[in-house]
Aldo/keto reductase (Cellulosimicrobium composti), 351 residues
Amino acid sequence: MEYRPLGRTGIQVSPFALGAMMFGALGNPDHEDSVKIVHRALDAGINLVDTADVYSGGESEEIVGKALQGRRDDVVLATKAGLPVGHDPRDPQARPRPNTSGASRRYLTRALEASLRRLRTDYVDVFQVHRPDPGTDLEETLAVLTDLQREGKIRAFGTSSMPASDIVRAQWVAERRGLGRPRTEQPPYSILDRGIEREVLPALQEYGMGALVWSPMAGGLLTGRYRKGQAAGTHRSRFGFRHLSDEARLAAVESLVGVADEAGIALRHLALAFVVAHPGVSAALIGPRTMEQLDDLLAGAETALSDDVLDRIDAIVPPGTDVGTLDQAYRTPALTAPALRRRPVAERRAA
C-alpha cells in the first residue's frame, strides 16, 4: 500500500484509514473480534486508526487501546472529542448535561485525559474537535489545543465538519495570536456528497491541511445493499436514517450501478476509488463491522478509475454538488436555529 502525506504535518498515512465507529455496542460488541479486525487492517498496510470518545460511549477507544498494545509506534492514532458522550442525537427528548460537550478548555482537557486512559497511551497523533462549537470562542479552542500539543499529549490537532469559512478563520486566528494551527479536517465526502469540492477541499489544500474524509459510502448507500424499490435489512437500516430512502439519492445510485457494472468494478470499490482520487484527500475512513466487510473493502484497495469513468460520475453528480442530505452531516446553527434567520415579531411588524 502506498502512503501519502497528511497535509504538511510530515506524517505519512495509508490512503485507507480504519474508522472504529462500529467497534462496541453500536456495531460489533465482541471485543476480541474487533481487535482481530484492527490487526488485520494493520497487517494489510493501513497505518491510521481513527476513533472518538462518543463511539459506543468510549467502548470503541477501549477496544482500539487493546488492539494497539505492542503496535502503538507503528500506528497513526487519531481520536475526536466534542460531542456529548452517552447522548443519543436521534432522541429529540434527550439533553446532554451542561459542560459535557463542546470545544472549551475545560471540556477538551478532560475529554483528552479520559481518551488517553481508554486508549492505553500517553499521546495521540491527531486530536480532533468532533464538530464546530459556536458557543466557544475559537481562540480559546486553539489555545487549549496548542497547550496540549506543547505538553506532548497530542502531536497534531484538527477539526471535523468545519465550514470553509471557519477553516480560514481558524488559520487567521492561529497566525494572529501565535497559536498552533489546525493541521487536519475530517469532512464527509462521497460521490453523492461532493459539496466539499467547492470550498472546503481547496481551503485545505491552500493551508496544507490533511483531509481524512468520512462516509465514502454515503452512509451505506454506495455499498450496493440499498436499491430503489428494494428493502434492505442491514445493520445500518435499523437506525432509521432518512437518506437511505431518499428518492434522489437512490436514483443516482441506480445510475452509478450502471457505471460500475460497465467498468467491471463493484460499486463499493468504485466509491472508495473515487474519493481517494481527489488530490486533496489524504485518506478515506472505512468503518467495517465484521472481518468479512474489511476483507471485501481491502480487495478494492488497488482500484484506480479511468478519466472516462470519472467523467461519467461527474455527469451523474456534478462536481461540488450534493444529492439530498446525509443524515450525519453537520448543519450550521444559521440553518437549524430559526431565531438566527428570523427577526423578532415586533421588528417585523414595525417594518
